Amino acid sequence: xxxxxxxxxxPARQSDLTYAFEPRNQLSDDVKRVFASAFSRWSEWTPLxxxxxxxxxxxxxxxxxxxxxxxxxxxxxxxxxxxxxxFAPPAGLLHLDIAETWITGNVIASGSPSAMDLxxxxxxxIGHVLGLGHSSVEDAIMFPTIPSGVRKVELDRDDIxxxxxxxxxxxxxxxxxxxxxxxxxxxGVT
Amino acid sequence: NFFPNVSxxxxxFLPNTTAGAWDSxxxxxxxxxxxxxxxxxxxxxxxxxxxxxxxxxxxxxDDFDDDLESAVKNYQRNFNLNATGELDESTVQQILKxxxxxxDIVNGTSTMNSGKSSSMIKHTVAH
Lengths: 190, 127
Fold this sequence. Notes:
B: alpha+beta
């Protein structure tokens, strides 16, 4: 694991974070459920909690789907290539490329060479908005690449060690030998 | 473009989604230092974007020069590949994979194989 330069993190007094979706995207409940699940992957191992709010401008974390140049200096490049990006604390911005074919359910056994599992990418980008950089550990969520048709949503030991350096453990779950280590969900076709 | 599963994607939609943004890098497989190959400049832009080349002018040639060789080696180390400095098949296939847009290296210091110490990273960049 690694951190952003200066090791930015959300302050200790701000462990209950809110998130909201770009109103112009008008995302379905299915898509929002994917993000709720992605956030739970991180709250399982930290004291952080994540609550959706309808107040986009007041939310700590702002999630949106955009295309091309969308004003943050990091233009998206269409199908595949860069899928998403996020900004270190306390920016809280999580952007995804609207040009991708996003799968909100079962991406396994994909017949499409470009179908991307939304939750897998969401879990990775949430790691960034919490303060983690990229990892060279291939099984880690924070490894920079993910092939199409692959679902990789459970935190690796490397991810958990990194996030717990920043925020400590979940007082209700401080084990490192829990089910997520015994039966990690990484599957799919490349 | 949200779908609950792959079978729900309209067939007419699929043919238009197979060309990835970096497919042109496929033809660079086998390139090595000292060569001049059309398309190398685009690859240099890729490495610049992800922090492996720090040229600030943004003007790149198609020469496989020392800067690119160094970038390729660093990339290979970060992705657990043999650090040959050449664009071998496994390196190109890794480059072609879809990925996060956050840079791997900031200000010339790796944020991937940094020994897990943020003290090695000298400057703050918001991205």
